[in-house]
Amino acid sequence: MPGDAPLLERLAGLPAVSVGELVELLERMEEPGRDPLLAGLAGVDEDGEPAIHPLVAAVVEHLRQKPETTCYAALLEALTGMWNAAVRGAVVSRLRAQGLPADDLLLRLEALSPTLGLKSESREWARQWMSDPTAQDAALVQQCLVRLLLALRGLAEARARMLTGEPPKETT
To answer: Where in the sequence is the domain holding 57, given as residue range(s)?
Structure first.
């Protein structure tokens, strides 16, 4: 694996790590706060017991629903969600600066790019998003950041196995 290859290309070259394997790894961690990727998302509760941020628990539960998905796919999904939120924010800012009425904003966004994620969502989600786009996309970005960190943690396991000469785990 050349050192100057783009990061996503290098990550794609790693053996697949299933999300199920990642969830198992997380469940075995006695002190998730000691992991550099999870340190900001873990701590201790009032009783001094290890605890994770509720958002981590929600994302892990979502990942459990598709254990056969790979960490690489979860990483791309997270990056795509953050990208869509960033582009939506930039486009909304420009459209509002042009004086576009709120009623026309969603229609204009849908017409500009189906990849912004608004067409694929339900009408209820679109209405909620229109009521406060910043809050809705901020929540999405937070979930995506947690997904990104967890996916990287899983991919790091594959790289650690390679660096230490361990055989890749069998995928089922």
So the answer is: 7-164
